[in-house]
Every structure is written in C-alpha cells, then in structure tokens.
Amino acid sequence: MNENLFASFITPMILGLPLVTLIVLFPSLLFPTSNRLVNNRFVTLQQWMLQLVSKQMMSIHNPKGQTWTLMLMSLILFIGSTNLLGLLPHSFTPTTQLSMNLGMAIPLWAGAVITGFRNKTKTSLAHFLPQGTPTPLIPMLVIIETISLFIQPMALAVRLTANITAGHLLIHLIGGATLALMSISATTALITFIILILLTILEFAVAMIQAYVFTLLVSLYLHDNT
Amino acid sequence: MPQLDTSTWLTMILSMFLTLFIIFQLKISKHNFYYNPELTSTKMLKQNTPWETKWTKIYLPLSLPL
C-alpha cells in the first residue's frame, strides 16, 4: 500500500529522459505574451490580475525593495499555476518535490539576507536582539534568533512541500475509500461529500502560494530593507 | 518517500531554474502597464515670438534718451 500511495510523487522520466522538465515548463504556456497595444481578453485579464497582485504585494516596500517585483510576481504565478494544475486527476505537481522548493527558497532567502547585510549591516545584525531584553538573557536570545533566521528557508521549502503533498495524498486516500465503499452504498454519499469539501479546501492551494510569497516577502524583505 | 531520492534532484532544480528565472520573467517583463488617460489642459500655450525672447532697447523707442 505504501508503494502505491507515493507512486504519484515519483519524478516522471521516460527511458532516462527528463519528462519532468516539460511538465515544469507547461504552466508558462498558459500565460501568453503579447506585444500588442490592445490584447485579447485572455491576456488582458491576466495582465490585470497580475497588476492587482503586484500593487497589493509590493506597495509596502521602499523603492529598493520594489526592484524585486519581477522576481516575486513570477514566483507567485509559477507556484500558483503549478499548484492549481496539480489538482487535475493523474497530473504531476512539481511543487511536491522537496528539491524544487529548496531550490526556490534558499536562493531567494539568501539574496534577501545578503542584501540586508551589504547595505544595512548594523540594522540587519540588530535584528538578532529584540529591544528591551534583560542583560542575562542576551547570549541565549542571540542564539535563538540566529537559529530562527537559518530555519527560514527550510521552513519555506518544507511548508510548501508538505502542504501540497499532504493534500494530494488525502485526495488519493479518500477517493480510494469512496471507490471501495461503493458496494456498501449507505456511506458513499457522505464520503463523496467529504471529497468534494476537501477538494474545495485544496483549491486554497492558491492560498498556499499567497502564503509562500507573502511569507517570503514580508518577513525577509521588510526585515532586510527597512 | 520518493521525494527524498536525490538522484532526480539536479534535474528538478535545473528545470525549475529555467522556468522560473528565465521563461516566466521574460513573459512578465513584456507586460505593459499603461497610465490611465488624463485630460490635457486645453489652454493654448503662449508661444514666444522671436523678438520677445531677447529684449533690446530699440523695442521701446519712447524710452530712448533722444
């Protein structure tokens, strides 16, 4: 049962060729570029939504922080589209791979922290010691703050992986349970209803991206630039 | 858990780098964010006639000390 359950999370390869690259590239096909002055409805809608999201997210930052807009907007689009596409049956979701999430979290976090260190060294070092701590507690608190700083990228990566993986696993399990219970039709209606609710809640995979980018953005950036 | 099988990690990370950092950013950088159309003032701008840009004494002949 264990093998079967995790089978959908194996990186898809065909005869040793990485099919997974095509799968990762696929969401970019859903965002067509258009150089026209007046685009079609699809492109206009996407550009409008992106503008809305960027205003919402980047308005808190100073101009130096706003140079990260392109990076963060492509991040939220990528994770959002990948998660939503993963809700289709029998699809592979790249964000369930810890490797990919680590590859996203660590460089972005490191970039923010190093920017803070280079441009505002004293301020970023000062974040290790909250104001008004009693003197005997200082060494311990610095250690704790350092640990909490270095855990940030790990937490970002593992949070995304675990949430999406757990959601997919639950859908598999409950769907399988429904199928098995079909012959005993009394409880089928109830279980199918639970699946429906679970899928709806999982649509908040989009909220996950919001959580990802927002957490990344708010905690790291305000921390390092302001 | 198949996610912990490190043999595929390099492929995953590289394909993610390609998509996220290159393709998506190229697509989004092509978005145009237009300004909303604003009313321009209809007041005619006063053009300086050539003899008004440089003042010389001869323009006021009555003030000459003759």
TrEMBL record, chain A:
Indicate the secretion signal residues: none
- Gene3D superfamilies listed in its UniProt record: ATP synthase, F0 complex, subunit A
Subcellular location, record wording: Mitochondrion inner membrane
> Per the UniProt record, which residue ranges are transmembrane?
12-31, 67-88, 100-117, 137-158, 170-198, 204-222
InterPro entries attached to this UniProt entry: ATP_synth_F0_asu (IPR000568), ATP_synth_F0_asu_AS (IPR023011), ATP_synth_F0_asu_bact/mt (IPR045083), F0_ATP_A_sf (IPR035908)
Its topology with respect to the membrane? Multi-pass membrane protein
User: Any idea which UniProt keywords this protein has?
Assistant: ATP synthesis, CF(0), Hydrogen ion transport, Ion transport, Membrane, Mitochondrion, Mitochondrion inner membrane, Transmembrane, Transmembrane helix, Transport
A GO cellular-component term linked to this record: mitochondrial inner membrane
Pfam families reported for this sequence: ATP-synt_A (PF00119)
Concerning PROSITE patterns, the annotation shows: ATPASE_A (PS00449)
Q: Does the keyword Transport apply?
A: yes
Which reaction(s) are listed as its catalytic activity? H(+)(in) = H(+)(out)
Instruction: Report the GO molecular function annotations.
Output: proton-transporting ATP synthase activity, rotational mechanism
Family statement: Belongs to the ATPase A chain family.
Which proteins does it associate with, and in what oligomeric form? Component of the ATP synthase complex composed at least of ATP5F1A/subunit alpha, ATP5F1B/subunit beta, ATP5MC1/subunit c (homooctomer), MT-ATP6/subunit a, MT-ATP8/subunit 8, ATP5ME/subunit e, ATP5MF/subunit f, ATP5MG/subunit g, ATP5MK/subunit k, ATP5MJ/subunit j, ATP5F1C/subunit gamma, ATP5F1D/subunit delta, ATP5F1E/subunit epsilon, ATP5PF/subunit F6, ATP5PB/subunit b, ATP5PD/subunit d, ATP5PO/subunit OSCP.
Q: Which NCBIfam families match?
A: ATP_synt_6_or_A
| The name this protein goes by in its record | ATP synthase subunit a
Organism equals Bos mutus (wild yak)
Q: Which gene encodes it?
A: ATP6
TrEMBL record, chain B:
One GO cellular component term of this record is:
mitochondrial membrane
Regions that span the bilayer: 6-24
- GO molecular-function terms, A-Z: proton transmembrane transporter activity
Q: Which biological process terms from the Gene Ontology are attached to this UniProt entry? A: proton motive force-driven ATP synthesis
Where does this one sit in the cell? Mitochondrion membrane
Q: Which Pfam families match?
A: ATP-synt_8
InterPro entries per the record? ATP8_mammal, ATP8_metazoa
Keyword annotations for this protein, in alphabetical order, are: Acetylation, ATP synthesis, CF(0), Hydrogen ion transport, Ion transport, Membrane, Mitochondrion, Transmembrane, Transmembrane helix, Transport
Q: Which domain of life is it from?
A: Eukaryota
Q: What topology does the record note for this protein and the membrane?
A: Single-pass membrane protein
Instruction: Describe, as the record does, how this protein assembles with itself and its partners.
Output: Component of the ATP synthase complex composed at least of ATP5F1A/subunit alpha, ATP5F1B/subunit beta, ATP5MC1/subunit c (homooctomer), MT-ATP6/subunit a, MT-ATP8/subunit 8, ATP5ME/subunit e, ATP5MF/subunit f, ATP5MG/subunit g, ATP5MK/subunit k, ATP5MJ/subunit j, ATP5F1C/subunit gamma, ATP5F1D/subunit delta, ATP5F1E/subunit epsilon, ATP5PF/subunit F6, ATP5PB/subunit b, ATP5PD/subunit d, ATP5PO/subunit OSCP.
> What's this protein's family per the entry?
Belongs to the ATPase protein 8 family.
Q: What does this protein do?
A: Subunit 8, of the mitochondrial membrane ATP synthase complex (F(1)F(0) ATP synthase or Complex V) that produces ATP from ADP in the presence of a proton gradient across the membrane which is generated by electron transport complexes of the respiratory chain. ATP synthase complex consist of a soluble F(1) head domain - the catalytic core - and a membrane F(1) domain - the membrane proton channel. These two domains are linked by a central stalk rotating inside the F(1) region and a stationary peripheral stalk.
Q: What is this protein called?
A: ATP synthase complex subunit 8
| Organism, as annotated | Bos grunniens x Bos taurus
Upper taxonomic lineage: Eukaryota, Metazoa, Chordata, Craniata, Vertebrata
